[in-house]
């Protein structure tokens, strides 16, 4: 019976069925859209695409700002699902209450895009599973609050700053400096060393671009690796908005978007492999280090020895799940969060500091943004 029906189908029949399916889906899509509860102003979405196509060619933030100007302080867009955007501080004040009883416990909802991009159930920033988040937060806090870790971080920061100042002096007073590039590399270097204990030398690599005639060919590969890291971190961070905006259909079937997605996944694999290799190598180093020999004070080492015989911190009362050693995936999540948050956010604080430290530039700063 079924074989008879299938054999009677022609190519034109399959085409008509496909058209009928698309029409049915579009009717159902817009029926749900126009009968949604509590509708808010916002752009009309398209089936399969939502509003993601409108952000192509614009920065994600610029696109949201344009929507704000058009639709007001509260509007809705469709990025895979309905998303409500709030653009006034008093509207989100209740959402930022630091209480365990809050109705808004998660910063981001775990989407299939975040899962594909490797942002689910690891670290703190994008982790929406409460149990693993609490576990990661406990270990993260434990590593950050260790006195020896803080002393070492301050020492390394001063050392790197003096190194950067020496580079500036070598370039001379007449050399124009782009602080945005220097600070991004400074924060990447210090965050990378604080978290892993490994030197990255982004600053040295960038400095060498100004003195090409003095470059050592033997160090060219090492400099490339240093620059590759900062570009990889920046690209991975920019990919977060990409996997938030575009749904699975667009990421896998729309030509331009699909190519961008493949490039981001390739970069993700490079970054993840590099961090996992560092974790693997450091674990081997710790296992081969005698118990009576002290270990260096970085976040990676502190996380690895937590709740082991090498742990120098006093064990306090906690859940049983928080008294076990960390897995490589948990360590990786905390390290990645530290690098993304530190290299990107901290570098921007330096820009603000320098602007307001030099009073002559304050008026220019104010007039640029407000007039």
Task: Outline the fold blueprint.
Blueprint: H1 2-8, H2 11-34, H3 60-71, E1 74-78, E2 82-86, H4 89-92, H5 112-117, H6 130-144, H7 147-171, H8 179-196, H9 202-208, H10 220-245, H11 248-253, H12 255-287, H13 299-305, H14 328-357, H15 362-370
Antiparallel strand pairs: 1-2
Helix pairs in contact: 6-13, 7-8, 8-14, 9-10, 10-12, 12-14
What features would you describe in this structure?
There is one protein chain. Helices cover 62% and strands 3% of the residues. It has 371 residues and is an all-alpha fold. It has two domains: 34-105, no CATH class; 135-370, Cytochrome p450, CATH 1.10.630.10. It has a two-stranded antiparallel ribbon with strand order 1-2. A hairpin with a 3-residue loop joins strand 1 and strand 2. Helix 8 runs antiparallel to helix 14 (328-357) and helix 12 (255-287) packs across helix 14 (328-357). The longest helix is centred in the last third of the chain and has 33 residues, at 255-287. The chain is globular, with a radius of gyration of 26 Å. The protein starts with a helix and ends with a helix. The mean pLDDT is 79.
């Amino acid at each position: 019976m079924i074989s008879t029906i299938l054999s009677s189908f022609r190519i034109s029949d399959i085409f008509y069925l496909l058209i009928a399916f698309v029409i049915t889906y579009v009717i159902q899509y817009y029926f749900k859209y126009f009968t949604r509860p509590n509708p808010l102003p916002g752009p009309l979405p398209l089936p399969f695409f939502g509003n993601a196509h409108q952000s192509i060619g614009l920065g994600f933030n610029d696109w949201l700002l344009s929507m704000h100007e058009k639709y007001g302080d509260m509007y809705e867009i469709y990025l895979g699902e309905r998303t409500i955007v709030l653009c006034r501080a008093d509207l989100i004040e209740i959402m930022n209450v630091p209480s365990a009883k809050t109705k808004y416990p998660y910063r981001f909802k775990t989407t299939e895009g975040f899962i594909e991009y490797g942002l689910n159930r690891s670290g703190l920033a994008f982790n929406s599973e409460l149990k693993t988040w609490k576990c990661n937060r406990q270990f993260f806090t434990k590593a950050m609050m260790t006195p020896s870790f803080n002393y070492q971080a301050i020492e390394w920061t001063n050392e790197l700053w003096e190194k950067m100042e020496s580079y500036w002096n070598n370039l001379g007073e007449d050399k124009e400096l782009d602080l945005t590039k220097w600070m991004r590399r400074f924060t990447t270097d210090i965050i990378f060393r604080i978290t892993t204990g490994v030197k990255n030398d982004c600053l040295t690599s960038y400095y060498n671009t100004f003195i090409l005639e003095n470059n050592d060919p033997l160090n060219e590969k090492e400099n490339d690796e240093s620059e590759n890291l900062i570009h990889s971190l920046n690209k991975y961070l920019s990919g977060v908005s990409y996997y938030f905006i575009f749904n699975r259909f667009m990421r896998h079937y729309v030509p331009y978007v699909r190519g961008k997605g493949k490039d981001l996944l390739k970069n993700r694999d490079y970054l993840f492999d590099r961090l996992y290799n560092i974790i693997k190598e450091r674990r081997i180093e710790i296992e081969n280090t005698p118990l009576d020999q002290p270990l260096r004070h970085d976040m990676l080492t502190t996380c690895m020895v937590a709740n082991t015989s090498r742990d120098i911190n006093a064990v306090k009362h906690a859940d049983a799940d928080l008294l076990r050693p960390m897995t490589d995936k948990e360590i990786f999540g905390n390290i990645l969060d530290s690098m993304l948050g530190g290299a990107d956010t901290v570098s921007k604080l330096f820009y603000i500091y320098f602007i307001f430290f030099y009073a002559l530039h304050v008026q220019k700063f104010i007039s640029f943004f407000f007039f």
